[in-house]
């Protein structure tokens, strides 16, 4: 029996139990993967200050995100193809998040649709929108989200054009996998995954198939998604989408102070400091390195959340201490899902909660709201000194 102690334990099980193309889809970045690597390695440069002989009783990690009380200041990020990591993956992740007491965000490029998740869960979730050229499709999916009781819209800003991820091209990524010899050989070693997939009818992008014009089969779906991301998305369109949605509005993909200020100007209720997990602009700074400058610029004007690179509760605590109001995790819970299904997502959240709790106590804090930069040792050159 495998003893699960950390996210890396879940990651190893995930790799063993999930088809290679879907594990690689999760665990990869664009081009050289520099940003993908530094998202995690830059957290390692920050140290904690141990404090002793303080009262460590009655600790609490409870916080709030958009006015909603959360067990820990962590939300589940939108991740495409989650339902290919495990059958009905989005539903399983949403249920785990609900039971644990944190928000779940459904991706436009999910396998389970908005309606699938709404039917299978009892509480409102969030929906992440990719802006497409097909304005009728965008209008319709926003209305579908409203009809399903979605409580917040997350607009992703950094995927107007696709960054190249070498592994996806080499693996011939598709949902479901194409019946090539290479895929069949790999799938034959993932029998548990395959048996679960045979028991569900959710094996393609159900937010799109049957809802977009002229998308009737996998070939047309593939060509549609490759052509549909809107390169003309600008702040004017962002403002119009906010008005069209009319509810809590979150902007994801902020990595620059000027963009953070623009997000405040258009009325974002929260911004997510994110570089798409290192999957878009390779060579961009890690999110934890740019966080302090964004905090100095817009703290108090909108909620600031950090995404990309978090693999532990200690990473969450470092982000909170550096000024983030909350955090979002993607790969950390996907590793749990791929390893153990719904129970794996819960396990990932429990690991992060325990790591946060013990670390916070050993830094001399009892309440997450009292966590600040005083608990950290940060290298003097951590943010970098760049020429004009």
Short note summarizing the structure:
With 388 residues, this protein is an alpha/beta fold.
The class by helix and strand makeup works out as: alpha/beta
CATH domain class = Alpha Beta
Q: What is the total domain count?
A: 1
Helical fraction: 40-55%
- Annotated CATH homologous superfamily: Aldolase class I
The total strand number stands at 12
Q: Specify Rg, calculated over alpha carbons.
A: 20 Å
Side by side, the strands of the main sheet go 4-11-10-9-8-7-6-5
| Silhouette | globular
The CATH architecture would be Alpha-Beta Barrel
Catalogue the unreliable spans: none
Q: Count every helix, treating DSSP H or I runs of 4 or more residues as helices.
A: 17
Largest pleated sheet: 8 strands, parallel
Mean pLDDT: 96
- Along the chain, the helix and strand elements come as HHHEEEEHHEHEHEHHHHHEHEHEHEHHE
User: What fraction of the residues are assigned to beta strands by DSSP?
Assistant: 5-15%
Q: In CATH terms, what is the fold-level topology? A: TIM Barrel
Our measurement of the CA-to-CA distance between the termini, rounded to an integer number of angstroms, reads 55 Å
């Amino acid at each position: 029996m495998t003893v699960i102690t950390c996210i890396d334990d879940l990651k190893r099980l995930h790799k063993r139990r999930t088809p290679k193309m879907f594990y690689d889809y999760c665990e990869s970045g664009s081009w050289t993967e520099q940003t993908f690597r530094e998202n995690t390695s830059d957290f390692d440069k920050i140290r904690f200050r141990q404090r002793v002989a303080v009262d460590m009783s009655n600790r609490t990690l409870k916080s709030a995100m958009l006015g909603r009380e959360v067990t820990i200041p962590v939300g589940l990020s939108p991740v495409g193809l989650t339902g290919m990591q495990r059958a009905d993956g989005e539903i399983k992740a949403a249920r785990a998040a609900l039971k644990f007491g944190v928000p779940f965000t459904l991706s436009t490029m999910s396998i389970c649709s908005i309606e699938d998740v709404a039917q299978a869960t009892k509480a409102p979730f969030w929906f992440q929108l990719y802006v497409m050229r097909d304005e009728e499709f965008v209008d319709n999916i926003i209305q579908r989200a409203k009809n399903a009781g979605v409580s917040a819209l997350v607009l992703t800003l950094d995927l107007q054009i696709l960054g190249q991820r070498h592994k996806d091209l080499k693996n011939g990524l598709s949902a479901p996998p194409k019946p090539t010899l290479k895929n069949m050989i790999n799938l034959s070693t993932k029998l548990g995954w395959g048996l679960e997939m045979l028991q569900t009818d959710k094996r393609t992008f159900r937010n799109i198939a049957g809802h977009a014009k002229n998308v009737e089969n996998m070939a047309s779906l593939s060509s549609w998604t490759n052509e549909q991301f809107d390169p003309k998305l600008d702040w004017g369109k962002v403002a119009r989408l906010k008005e069209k949605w009319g509810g809590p509005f979150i902007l994801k993909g902020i990595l620059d102070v000027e963009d953070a200020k623009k997000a405040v100007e258009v009325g974002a209720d929260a911004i997510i400091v994110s570089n798409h997990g290192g999957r878009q602009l390779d060579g961009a700074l890690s999110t934890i390195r740019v966080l302090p400058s964004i905090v100095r610029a817009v703290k108090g004007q909108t909620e600031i959340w950090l995404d990309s690179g978090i693999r532990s509760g200690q990473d969450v605590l470092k982000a909170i201490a550096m000024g983030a109001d909350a955090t979002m995790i993607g790969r950390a819970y996907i590793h749990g899902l791929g390893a153990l299904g719904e129970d794996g997502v819960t396990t990932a959240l429990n690991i992060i909660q325990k790591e946060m709790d013990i670390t916070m106590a050993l830094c001399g804090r009892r309440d997450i709201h009292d966590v600040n930069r005083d608990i950290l040792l940060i290298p003097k050159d951590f943010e970098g000194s760049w020429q004009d």
